[in-house]
């Protein structure tokens, strides 16, 4: 078997490539209507398609990994990333760009699968720090990828962004093939195709309502139809999953108190993280007096240190979780987020204020995202690790997508005309900081009720005795 450090490094690189896809088009997002000769509502699908694909594929990929081998599914997802990137790179119109971006979104499933692989192949003493590192890539890839995307956009044609993604995906594919061992732990049974279809349809309905509600109108027939229809489909799906012998997701495991509460905290933590991802860059780039007038590259460099903090903290997070337990680590993460937004509400009049707040965001997400998969895998059997981690990643996605919609709507609705341009007001940013703060308080409150020791499991995915 290859050295365990090499396995961790390759899976971390796969996680970075995955999270990079979410900030890949940020530098060209406002220019897409002109580049693609389409209206702004249509070009918004370039971002929305990635979000929807990620949310739908991640829990399904987790179950496929449990059944057919986690490395095999990781390779399939990376190959899908390469294909999607090439399609986007050669596209000249909106439709094919959206198709390519949807295929890119599928790669998000490599992070929960990578976490599950670590449990299968690493020595027990190395599992927690490695999980913390892979979990950190959810935030690190976006924070580090933003200045890279800005540099590529400023010095080359926008299609180069997608060629860069294709090369990155191909390199990671080869490294996974050469370094990561074949999965030997498999779950017997047949894949639940009906359950996968039901989950996909239900999630698409809800996420469409969340992500497009501001454009369609929150009370419009399209938004309500998608939202209510999605909830109805998921209710029927849950009823079905509880009555078949080999479900896509074992909802009885998902309903265990530590798993359920961790997933609820994940929604709040994801919302709190993405509130800053939406508000801080805009505040840095807007002209005075509302913002600071930085270029996209300069603003990206202010945001980037939060990703570095997550990366630096990851080995410390793993050791701390082994000492105090992942629940307390999650609580510490929520406290750091509360401190970040509290600081922003008091001080947001200089660039260094945003830098300090963003560093605290990095601490909060570094601790919080490291704790979540540890809490999950201490509470589920080995046969459920891929699916359970995929479900947890889905809940985080629900939080981030909700934040993108809600905070985006706040900044759009609370705006004024400045030099012929409609920009968010200072009050709009204050409201967005309050939203992030409230979400962090909810995460803290929920985390406080997670049991210190989960119920005994005959074959736990992680030992309970850490």
From TrEMBL:
<feature type="transmembrane region" description="Helical">
    <location>
        <begin position="433"/>
        <end position="452"/>
    </location>
</feature>
<feature type="transmembrane region" description="Helical">
    <location>
        <begin position="43"/>
        <end position="61"/>
    </location>
</feature>
<feature type="transmembrane region" description="Helical">
    <location>
        <begin position="130"/>
        <end position="152"/>
    </location>
</feature>
<feature type="transmembrane region" description="Helical">
    <location>
        <begin position="354"/>
        <end position="372"/>
    </location>
</feature>
<dbReference type="Pfam" id="PF07690">
    <property type="entry name" value="MFS_1"/>
</dbReference>
<keyword id="KW-0812">Transmembrane</keyword>
<feature type="domain" description="Major facilitator superfamily (MFS) profile">
    <location>
        <begin position="7"/>
        <end position="455"/>
    </location>
</feature>
<keyword id="KW-1133">Transmembrane helix</keyword>
<dbReference type="GO" id="GO:0022857">
    <property type="term" value="F:transmembrane transporter activity"/>
</dbReference>
<feature type="transmembrane region" description="Helical">
    <location>
        <begin position="260"/>
        <end position="280"/>
    </location>
</feature>
<feature type="transmembrane region" description="Helical">
    <location>
        <begin position="393"/>
        <end position="413"/>
    </location>
</feature>
<feature type="transmembrane region" description="Helical">
    <location>
        <begin position="102"/>
        <end position="118"/>
    </location>
</feature>
<dbReference type="InterPro" id="IPR020846">
    <property type="entry name" value="MFS_dom"/>
</dbReference>
<dbReference type="GO" id="GO:0005886">
    <property type="term" value="C:plasma membrane"/>
</dbReference>
<dbReference type="InterPro" id="IPR011701">
    <property type="entry name" value="MFS"/>
</dbReference>
<protein>
    <submittedName>
        <fullName>Multidrug resistance protein 3</fullName>
    </submittedName>
</protein>
<feature type="transmembrane region" description="Helical">
    <location>
        <begin position="216"/>
        <end position="240"/>
    </location>
</feature>
<feature type="transmembrane region" description="Helical">
    <location>
        <begin position="191"/>
        <end position="210"/>
    </location>
</feature>
<feature type="transmembrane region" description="Helical">
    <location>
        <begin position="292"/>
        <end position="317"/>
    </location>
</feature>
<feature type="transmembrane region" description="Helical">
    <location>
        <begin position="158"/>
        <end position="179"/>
    </location>
</feature>
<feature type="transmembrane region" description="Helical">
    <location>
        <begin position="329"/>
        <end position="348"/>
    </location>
</feature>
<dbReference type="InterPro" id="IPR036259">
    <property type="entry name" value="MFS_trans_sf"/>
</dbReference>
<feature type="transmembrane region" description="Helical">
    <location>
        <begin position="73"/>
        <end position="96"/>
    </location>
</feature>
<keyword id="KW-0472">Membrane</keyword>
């Amino acid at each position: 078997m290859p050295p365990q450090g090499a396995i961790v490094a390759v899976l971390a690189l796969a996680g970075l490539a995955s999270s990079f896809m979410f900030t890949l088009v940020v530098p060209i997002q406002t220019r897409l209507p002109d580049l693609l000769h389409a209206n702004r509502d249509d070009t918004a699908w370039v971002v929305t398609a990635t979000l929807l694909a990620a949310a739908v594929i991640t829990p399904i990929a987790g179950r496929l990994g449990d059944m057919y081998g986690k490395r095999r599914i990781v390779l399939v997802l990376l190959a899908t990333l390469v294909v999607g990137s090439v399609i986007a790179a050669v596209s000249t119109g909106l439709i094919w760009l959206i198709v390519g971006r949807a295929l890119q979104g599928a790669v998000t499933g490599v992070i929960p699968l990578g976490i599950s692989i670590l449990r299968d192949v690493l020595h027990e003493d190395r599992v927690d720090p490695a999980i913390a590192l892979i979990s950190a890539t959810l935030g690190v890839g976006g924070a580090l990828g933003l200045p890279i995307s800005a540099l590529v956009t400023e010095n080359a044609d926008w299609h180069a962004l997608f060629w860069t993604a294709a090369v990155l995906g191909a390199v990671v594919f080869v490294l996974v093939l050469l370094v990561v061992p074949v999965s030997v732990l498999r779950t017997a049974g047949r894949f639940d195709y009906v359950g996968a279809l039901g989950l996909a349809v239900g999630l698409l309905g809800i996420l469409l309502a969340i992500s497009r509600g501001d454009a369609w109108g929150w009370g419009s027939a399209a938004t309500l139809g998608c939202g209510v229809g999605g909830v109805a489909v998921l209710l029927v799906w849950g009823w079905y999953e509880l009555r078949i012998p080999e479900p896509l997701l074992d909802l009885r495991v998902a309903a265990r108190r530590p798993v359920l509460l961790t997933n609820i905290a994940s929604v709040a933590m994801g919302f709190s993280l993405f509130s800053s991802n939406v508000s801080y860059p805009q505040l840095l780039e807007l002209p005075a007096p509302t913002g600071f007038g930085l270029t996209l590259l300069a603003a990206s460099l202010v945001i980037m240190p939060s990703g570095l903090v997550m990366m630096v903290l990851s080995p410390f997070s793993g050791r701390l979780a082994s000492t105090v337990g992942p629940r307390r680590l999650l609580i510490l993460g929520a406290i750091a987020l509360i401190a970040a937004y509290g600081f922003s509400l008091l001080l947001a009049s200089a660039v260094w204020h945003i830098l300090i707040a963003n560093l605290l965001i990095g601490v909060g997400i570094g601790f919080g995202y490291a704790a979540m998969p540890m809490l999950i895998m201490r509470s589920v059997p080995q046969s459920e690790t891929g699916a359970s981690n995929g479900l947890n990643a889905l809940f985080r996605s629900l939080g981030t997508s909700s934040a993108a919609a809600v905070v985006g709507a706040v900044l759009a609705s609370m705006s004024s005309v400045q030099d012929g341009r409609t920009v968010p007001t200072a009050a709009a940013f204050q409201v967005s900081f309050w939203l992030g703060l409230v979400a962090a308080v909810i995460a803290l409150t929920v985390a406080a009720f997670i049991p210190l020791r989960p119920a005994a499991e005959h074959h736990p995915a992680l030992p309970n005795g850490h």
